[in-house]
Amino acid sequence: MPADPTALLDRGAGCLLGGAVGDALGAPVEFLARPEIRREFGPSGITDPPRPALITDDTQLTLFTAEGYLHAWVRGKHRGVWGPTETVWQSYRRWLTTQQLDGPAPLARGLLADKRMYASRAPGVTCLRVLQSATLPNTTSDSRGCGGVARAAPAGFAPTPQTAYQLGCEFAALTHGHPSGWAPAGALALIVHLVAVRQRPLGDAVDQATGRALRDDQETGLALAAAAALAAADSSAARRVREARAFGRPVPAGGPSANSVESLGAGWVGPEALAIAVYAALTHRRAEQFPDALRLAANHSGDSDSTAAITGNILGALHGTAVLPREWLGMLELSDVIEQTGRDLAASCAGLPFDEEHYLLPE
């Protein structure tokens, strides 16, 4: 059943803001091994984003994905011309401008008009290299990296589950041409659509995305299946721990853990990044568990900002903005732009009014 329009607007904002706070939480520990994280931040690892909570290229490109998609949506409505993959490619090329210049040109529009976007946050080499081309590529690199899935959440607000999956794949394939680079992006977009727009339970959404991804890329499908199975086992162990404590029995070992996260990989490639995020979300799917889900997804030896960002996308889409810690939002870079962009995505999906003129960009 489609979500109530007001709730969907909030879930759109929650999806993008959740991804951004996860991104900011994981950024300081990306590239650090887990023992190094503990030495620097203590036995619990990093528990809160730094102040200010700075986003990385993952969130920057998520915003440009959303802007490119909304440009296509508005252009289709007013001019009868669709083509979101083309407009997202153009949007990624605009993002590249922010990595090359110090500030906006006098007549800049949209995200390019915001000086805060002109910050280099360790962008991925694959994206930088592929986007140097002035034309939409017919073939791309065969990268399996997680850069495609980390920016794919906006595709979840396409009008149907099938379109969400397709666009997620196509947007990622612009720079990550290996099936393991683009299939996870389609799977994430499908999960976001199912929980935010169709109000499906998270477990059902993951199962459906697993089956769909298996048709395109076995590695992605098997990684999702492994994450779901591990989450079920660790969640059962956590229940046994709670029951033992409640009844005064000896407390057994078990439950969600960093060891389980690292058994799924480091997150540098797309299937691993999505699997880690799905595991963290499934083991912490209750609203009050949102901060701990992001902490679990960030405190591992690997691509911590991407895995925590994807976790935040999923749980923000599931619950909306109420689960986001107010303190984290208060220090989040570009929170105003991120929130409004998420609401506009959801409005386009729900058929609600938004500032369409803002997305009629020069081509």
From TrEMBL:
MF terms in GO: hydrolase activity; metal ion binding
Residues engaged in binding Mg(2+) 1: 56-58, 303, 306
Required cofactor names: Mg(2+)
Membrane-crossing residue ranges in chain numbering: none
Cofactor notes: Binds 2 magnesium ions per subunit.
UniProt-annotated binding residues for Mg(2+) 2: 305
Keywords: Hydrolase, Magnesium, Metal-binding
Family matches, as InterPro entries: ADP-ribosylglycohydrolase, Ribosyl_crysJ1, Ribosyl_crysJ1_sf
Pfam family name, one: ADP_ribosyl_GH
Gene3D superfamilies: ADP-ribosylation/Crystallin J1
Protein family according to the UniProt entry: Belongs to the ADP-ribosylglycohydrolase family.
Protein name: ADP-ribosylglycohydrolase
Organism: Crossiella cryophila
